[in-house]
Amino acid sequence: MLQSVHSLIDSVGHRLNIPEETLEQLKSFDKEHVFEIALENGKSFKAYRVQHNNNLGPYKGGIRYHPNVSLDEVQALATLMSLKTAAVNIPLGGGKGGIAVDPHDLAEKEVEELSRKYARHLHPHIGPEKDVPAPDVNTNAQIIDWMVDEFSKLSGTEQKASFTGKSIANGGSAGRTAATGRGGVIALAELLKLRGKSYKDYTVAIQGFGNVGSYFGTVAETTQARWKLVGVSDSQAGLQSKDCLNAEALKEFKEGRGSFKNYTSHGVHIISNEELLSTEVDILVLAGLEDSLTTENMKKVKAKYIIEMANGPISNEAYDYLTAAGKVILPDVVANAGGVIVSYLEWLQNNNDERWTEAKVNYQLTTIIEKAVQDMCEYAEQEKTDLKQAAFAIAIKRLVA
């Protein structure tokens, strides 16, 4: 994944005539923290925090708990975060963290101990003006609340702005939980509007109906009357229906820890995750993990519009093939930026000791996302390039300015 990100930086950078030395600096990392966390029960886990670039502001990026977390992955995601914050023009840098663990294998007390020790180790290197972590895969507001509490104890003062994605009661922002999915809906709606296509009816399939995918579905269900959800999938199975699926009902089913392989409803057929990717739909939303579309399955995709709601869900080879085939790909650095945008808004609220309404947060989110899509589309049109190249070019120019 890191190699793919660096390859894109090189190709866009060369097109912009940016000196090789500057590009090498952009691909390097300011700091890398690699350490072990040992629990009292003897279990030990590898942990990471990569701080990529803070030219535009404090490092910003999530913390994920997943068995496959590695230094390479965290480096790639930290680099993407720098590009993402620059692409949507918010004053934050890029970072990423993670622990190679499946939290479902641990008791709650063990997860709390792990989280507090992670914050304890990184305490000297993070803070409101240094590095502001947030939740990511398999982490949530409770985990961030533990980290904030540990950080505040070590600091000797309450510092809510040291982390974002907190619970509302602990200084979190209204609208944060749904922000990434909502941002994707806003970005796609603006793209269709700019292309004069917003008047059409669209069928939608969502691969990866977790937090991001489910909120994309429920927000689209309430705001986009012309979009019809006909397919969804989780890690174990997919669902397909000729009639419109109810995103809110599916979200409630998943929150009950149900798998789509056990879902039953009249007119709904169980399919594989791979079959979902080849569904005959207008819009395919990729909200799972990276490299969902590769050379092995790229030729099966029938959707006209592909939305990268996960980080790096399309390999470089698949991206080139799909773009040449006429597919319109809304890139991750803009499509899934809703989370970091509302994290930025949470950080602002904490720094200014304010509490905004959800309506105000969503208005600010909409304003920032729509402007980012407009900038990206305008650049792509002027330079006769695709949307990802355009978004990366805008980001790189801001980072090196």
Short précis:
The chain is an alpha/beta fold and 401 residues long. The protein has helices spanning 2-15, 20-27, 71-87, 108-122, 141-155, 179-194, 211-223, 247-255, 273-277, 316-324, 332-335, 338-351, 358-383, 387-400; strands at 31-38, 44-53, 59-65, 94-99, 131-135, 202-207, 227-233, 238-241, 268-271, 283-286, 305-308, 328-330. The protein has 14 helices and 12 strands.
Characterization of the model:
It is a single chain. Helices cover 45% and strands 17% of the residues. It starts with a helix and ends with a helix. A 7-stranded mixed β-sheet has the order 9-8-7-6-10-11-12, with helices on both faces. Strands 1-2-4-3-5 form a 5-stranded mixed β-sheet, sandwiched between helices. The chain is built from 14 helices and 12 strands. Helix 7 links the parallel strand 6 and strand 7. The chain has helices at 2-15, 20-27, 71-87, 108-122, 141-155, 179-194, 211-223, 247-255, 273-277, 316-324, 332-335, 338-351, 358-383, 387-400; strands spanning 31-38, 44-53, 59-65, 94-99, 131-135, 202-207, 227-233, 238-241, 268-271, 283-286, 305-308, 328-330. The chain has 401 residues and is α/β, with parallel strands linked by helices. The model has no long low-confidence stretch (mean pLDDT 95). It folds into 2 domains: 31-170, 3-Layer(aba) Sandwich (Rossmann fold); 179-335, 3-Layer(aba) Sandwich (Rossmann fold), CATH 3.40.50.720.
